Amino acid sequence: MLQDTLTGAYARNALETRLSEEIDLARRGGYALALLMLDLDHFKSINDAFGHPRGDRTLAEFASRVRQIIRGGDLVFRYGGDEFVVLLPRTDSLQAEALAGRLLHAVADAPFDGSP
């Protein structure tokens, strides 16, 4: 799969194919599949106030934090500018909600590099 060079997440064009494959596997195997849509609140203000290089570093660090939290079989895709999709095979809604909470804390509890 192609990767987004900035964030290391898989590229958006790989999502559609992989999502179809995972849906088929989940149906045949009778297991759950979850998908999280992630978006960085107020991201445009980072680019506007501090410039695109700072915004790029923030996106890369965000994707890194997500990869540190998810399991090995989970997949992260960059969907748009500051939007990401996390595909969670063999994950039910309660597990996905718990993971979403951990991701939120991983982002909210530690400031991103740079000042302020």
Q: Could you explain the architecture of this structure?
A:
This protein is of the alpha+beta class. The protein is built from four helices and three strands, in the order αβααββα. A three-stranded antiparallel sheet has the order 1-3-2, with helices on both faces. A hairpin with a 4-residue loop joins strand 2 and strand 3. Helix 2 runs antiparallel to helix 3 and helix 3 crosses helix 4. The protein is globular, with a radius of gyration of 15 Å. The N and C termini lie far apart (36 Å). The mean pLDDT is 93.
Average of per-residue pLDDT values: 93
The whole-angstrom Rg is 15 Å
The description of the largest β-sheet is: 3 strands, antiparallel
Coarse morphology: globular
Reading the helices and strands in chain order gives HEHHEEH
Estimated structural class: alpha+beta
User: Level of helix content?
Assistant: 40-55%
User: How far from one another are the termini?
Assistant: 36 Å
Query: How large is the count of helical segments?
Result: 4
Percent of residues in β-strands: 15-25%
Spans where pLDDT lies below 50 across 5 or more residues: none
The number of strands is: 3
Q: How is the quaternary structure best described?
A: single chain
Strand order of the largest sheet: 1-3-2
Blueprint (SSEs and pairs):
Layout: H1 12-29, E1 33-39, H2 43-50, H3 52-69, E2 75-78, E3 83-89, H4 93-108
Antiparallel strand pairs: 1-3, 2-3
Helix pairs in contact: 2-3, 3-4
Keywords:
3 strands, 116 residues, alpha+beta, globular
